[in-house]
Sequence to fold (323 residues):
Amino acid sequence: MVSYALRRLLNAIPILIGITIISFAIIHLAPGSPLSAFLEDPTIKTADKQVMIQQAGLDKPIITQYWIWVSGLLQGDFGTSFHKSEPVLSLIREYMPNTLLLTITSFLVSLLIAVPLGILCALRANSRLDQAVSALSNVGLAIPGFWLALILIMFFGVKLGWLPIGGLSTINAPFSLVDRIEHLVMPVLTIAIAEAAVWTRYIRSSMLEVINQDYMRTAKAKGLLTGRILGLHGLRNALIPLVTLFGLAIPGFFAGSVVLESIFSIPGVGRLLIEATFQRDYPIITALVTLGAILTVLGNILADLLIGMLDPRVSLSKKEVRA
Fold:
């Protein structure tokens, strides 16, 4: 398994290099400049503008800029933000905990909703409950997240006044767990509804394939409890195809939600990215794009490793399925 993971990591290096080249080129070749606000200011002298361009390294050819950036990246240096004048890595460390709190909490809430509903719908396929849950899942997938967020803010935050409409805590107030939960309710619910709709459909589909297998009938014939059959034999095998989805979801834990973090004024990585995009803050954009690519590759490798652990038919060392 270790050798397989190392091979996958080595094979991913050319992909990551290609992603860094393409993203760096697209960002730097786009019209405009991160110093446009200063370069267009008539009160700033031309000599001072040239100094700012040189300090930002924008006077060098794009190939030289890329090499300088990659050299720093290999040493753990993601550069310095043009507008915040802080190391990009420090900014990511500052904003990342808020994003992880939001995304992981939303994911856990969605699983608490999706797993029992998916199993129940599979056991009662084509029943009224199954049809109702399927209809609600379609609605959850169809509703835009930003629209649902605005509706929740308008109803629970403005009209009823039950919940705060933004941030992760009350300004200038001591930390309180109740206060933190109140601030998280609406953003977590907004994300969890869409995620639960997806996971419910996949869990139902996987369980439908599993419950009719021979080993499930054999377990019933042995007199095992229904809960033990579903948990030990059914759910474990039903989760195998879902592991791939979990691997692909890992980058989203760290990337956050660009739109929702902006709507709810949550200082997370997603909001940092959208601010950097509007300000053309190249170091932040390239760092976050590169991190997203790395996490995507690692998520896929992790998914393959988990499948190998859950399914004994899969041989990771030879990368083949044993009959």
Q: What stands out?
A: The chain has a mean pLDDT of 79. The chain is about 75% helix and 0% strand. The first strand starts at residue 314 and ends at 315. The radius of gyration is 24 Å.
